[in-house]
Amino acid sequence: GIQVEQSPPDLILQEGANSTLRCNFSDSVNNLQWFHQNPWGQLINLFYIPSGTKQNGRLSATTVATERYSLLYISSSQTTDSGVYFCAVERSSGDKLTFGTGTRLAVRP
Amino acid sequence: KAGVTQTPRYLIKTRGQQVTLSCSPISGHRSVSWYQQTPGQGLQFLFEYFSETQRNKGNFPGRFSGRQFSNSRSEMNVSTLELGDSALYLCASSLGTGGLEKLFFGSGTQLSVL
Q1: What is residue B41's three-state secondary structure?
Q2: Taking CA atoms, which of A39, B8, B30, B75 is between 20 and 30 Å from B110?
Q3: B105 Cβ neighbours under 8 A, 6+ residues apart
Q4: Contact B103 A102 (CB under 8 A)
Q5: Cβ–Cβ of B100/A40 closer than 8 Å?
Q6: Closest residue on chain A to B105 (Cα)
Q7: Cα separation, A14 vs B17, whole angstroms
Q8: Secondary structure (3-state) at B26
Q9: Nearest CB neighbour to B107, from listed A42, A93, A97
């Protein structure tokens, strides 16, 4: 099956700092999504981004499908950004969504 | 619009018992997927249902099963529980139009098997 690797596995930031999270995948994909899992376990969909760049407030994401990676940028981090960030990919319609191992982010006040 | 609702939120069972978890998707969504999350294995796909039919299945033993009702609500069942079944079970819904879609997750059911 497709392999999805995320880096770094853990990240500690001071409030207000910026960060970049990376997702590498081993095969061509038609679907890529970024999720944030908060400390209570809720998975929130951040971006649906199989290619290109999208921005939503302090968050933005870029997927370079031809080079098989995606980046999630967090600017001016806040304590509420803490949690685990997952990317998930799908090779084609009807295939299952495969999740990466996640990046655990802690933002200190 | 209400989100994806999963019940119960927490569940404690003993080995050998069976358990049924419930998921109500977002109104208008016809596809429901189930995932198991453990610290060791991460998030793993269990199965997906669309229009009361299983459309896709992950690599889990037959003790894990599911179904979907005509109103798109879904249940998953685990029989003969093992200690290793302790996990957060997450349900996700999507429109199910057949394209590549955005998933929306519920808050999950935390299952502990003693």
Answers
A1: coil
A2: B30
A3: A35, A42, A43, A44, A45, B4, B90, B91, B92
A4: no
A5: no
A6: A43
A7: 46
A8: coil
A9: A42
